[in-house]
Amino acid sequence: MMSRRFGYELKATSGGARLGQVTTPRGVIRTPAFMPVGTAATVKALYPDQVRDAGADVILANTYHLMLRPGPERMARLGGLHDFMRWDGPILTDSGGFQVMSLAGLRKISEKGVSFRSHIDGSAHLLTPKRSIEIQCLLGSDIQMQFDECTPFPATRDEASASMELSLRWAERSKAAFTRLAGDGQALFGIVQGGIHQDLRARSAAALVAMDFSGYSIGGLAVGEGQARMLATLAQTTPLLPADKPRYLMGVGTPLDLIESVARGVDMFDCVMPTRSGRHGQAFTWDGKINLKNARFADDPAPLAAASNCPAARDYSRAYLNHLVKCGELLGAMLISWANIAFYQELMAAMRAAIHEDRFADFAAETKARLQGA
Amino acid sequence: MMSRRFGYELKATSGGARLGQVTTPRGVIRTPAFMPVGTAATVKALYPDQVRDAGADVILANTYHLMLRPGPERMARLGGLHDFMRWDGPILTDSGGFQVMSLAGLRKISEKGVSFRSHIDGSAHLLTPKRSIEIQCLLGSDIQMQFDECTPFPATRDEASASMELSLRWAERSKAAFTRLAGDGQALFGIVQGGIHQDLRARSAAALVAMDFSGYSIGGLAVGEGQARMLATLAQTTPLLPADKPRYLMGVGTPLDLIESVARGVDMFDCVMPTRSGRHGQAFTWDGKINLKNARFADDPAPLAAASNCPAARDYSRAYLNHLVKCGELLGAMLISWANIAFYQELMAAMRAAIHEDRFADFAAETKARLQGA
């Protein structure tokens, strides 16, 4: 019988890389894990069974988009997000914070929360720590995020500090709301902020750990600081987090980002890159990213990846994909998005295998060389 | 073993409706048949196995689009259209004539053929009866169409007559090219023209039958003349065609058009309607066509058709489809196009069953009432 509790088990390490398992009432998440992004209750251009068959254990959905359409109360009346979109595995939701912050000119931040206008119809909304958690509970999210402010880059040290302290106060209020509203087995993650400032990250991590969350997200990275600063910040931050809780790096990233971040102790990721690239004709392969619009593929009978288990990567020629993309055919976006989600899952599975066999450093070096066309 | 020859067998009739079977080297086509349209080597927004599983035995592809992209010589080098798009069943191609005629201002008709400029890049092309057949053979089409002029509506009697006579001369030249170029089991259909003029249709049919084609298409209908004139013309035309050859009504139509045309002895149809409507949020059901954008579906937990074998029609709520369509999500177009193709196939299967049981008139009356919400 499936456990009604949320949990994390660390199974093996290889250098800094961690092999583990997150348990939720809706199923197990093998970590390191990549979560396909289902912004508006759909992983764009994929059927839910394709996402599952590609190897994804968990998907992410966006509170901001779902609070506007179809609306959290309607979603709850319809039986919750899982039934609505026909995904019966775990779902992680963000808090909505990141996306309302991005509404430059349409939002105002105060101690209370963020007031903003919808990008769709201009209607006025207020998102607070309590309302964010309330919405995530109405959606039926398995893994919820505290409401936070994603500190922009660049920011002065004072700005980064004030922003991080605000997120800590919102963490307290998020946790209080979650404790009141959430059901058995649902989990809440705190989000470490602090920009690229090591002491601020340390202060944030320590305060959050003291509040005792089910897992810890690392926010405010991959926002323009560059890969070197991101990895340096990660390397300083993950050791401050408890080994017996999962760590989630938000909004990351490229295949190389994933490998480097796993090497620094990250367990969970999400990113729109595989699906967004898929809609623009760009495919991820073990030999790097290719643009299928390129004329050199027009006569290429080879598939994206003959050895893949994904029909989209295995069964259709690059010539056909080139044709579909050039014609603007939906099937082009469908096939390449599917192949990209499958590639990301293959990459995670390969990393898990390498950690299990304690050869992660070798795997990372070989794979990075191959991905860069060396 | 599959026959290497093309053939048609009339199995039963019910009133004017015919139950039959077209045999091709790539498989059998149960008639009356609806052919999903795969314009540019893809039935828009569907995977090939979804088209097959929905019950389609045959699809249509467009010579005009494929001659421009990816080009017929390239397609032949890549192994032909079937391999290219991963459809191993029969494929019927049009001649390209209809679509080049539609290029108002970009094309010029002469006895020789049609010279035109590509709608994509303005490049100059010439399509003749011989070149049309050559292209259809390069694509590897199983059922090919003679090159013809689709007489527009309205047209004077003289215009309709001259156009029909031109199509007859092109039929001779198409057949000569086909005899030289086509392989075992490939078939060529003549196309009956003549507008809404009964004597012209009779002249066209008699001349084509004398040339002895493998099947007969009825062209130049559903071009603005209205359903009543279309059905009257059909009723006068099908009796002029041999009973032992299939009859294909080009570019038709709505569910009601299909029922009325089957009643008048038509065996094969194609139309973009199910997929085009699907991309615009309109779904076909046994109780008529519905617009899923409509706000009344936002809270509707019912699927499009609980009794359908098609997952798109059976498993997703109207509320979810409404949400996807409102958000412009690709999955909305994917699911509704799929459900529509499945509905069209269910309709054809139901008509075949009704003919088999010799109750087509009753079936037609009941179904028409239901489709119209009576």
What is the element layout, followed by pairings?
The structure is a homodimer of 374-residue chains.
Chain A (H helix, E strand, L loop, with lengths): L6 E8 L2 E8 L2 E5 L1 E4 L11 H6 L5 E3 L1 H6 L3 H6 L3 H5 L5 E3 L3 H5 L5 E3 L4 E4 L6 E4 L1 H11 L3 E3 L11 H25 L5 E6 L5 H14 L3 E4 L8 H11 L9 E3 L5 H9 L4 E4 L1 H7 L2 E4 L2 E4 L19 H4 L3 H10 L2 H27 L3 H12 L3
Parallel strand pairs in A: 4-14, 5-6, 10-11, 11-12, 12-13, 13-14
Antiparallel strand pairs in A: 1-2, 2-3, 7-8, 8-9, 15-16
Helix pairs in contact in A: 6-7, 7-8, 10-15, 11-14, 13-14, 14-15
Structure write-up:
The structure is a homodimer of 374-residue chains. By secondary structure, chain A is of the alpha/beta class. Chain A is built from 15 helices and 16 strands. Chain A has helices at 48-53, 63-68, 72-77, 81-85, 97-101, 129-139, 157-181, 198-211, 227-237, 255-263, 273-279, 311-314, 318-327, 330-356, 360-371; strands at 7-14, 17-24, 27-31, 33-36, 59-61, 91-93, 107-109, 114-117, 124-127, 143-145, 187-192, 215-218, 247-249, 268-271, 282-285, 288-291. In chain A, the strands form 5 sheets. Chain A has a 6-stranded parallel sheet. In chain A, helix 11 (273-279) packs antiparallel against helix 14, helix 13 (318-327) packs across helix 14 (330-356) and helix 14 (330-356) runs antiparallel to helix 15 (360-371). The longest helix of chain A is centred in the last third of the chain and has 27 residues, at 330-356. Chain A is globular. At the A-B interface, helix 13 and helix 14 of A face helix 13 and helix 14 of B.
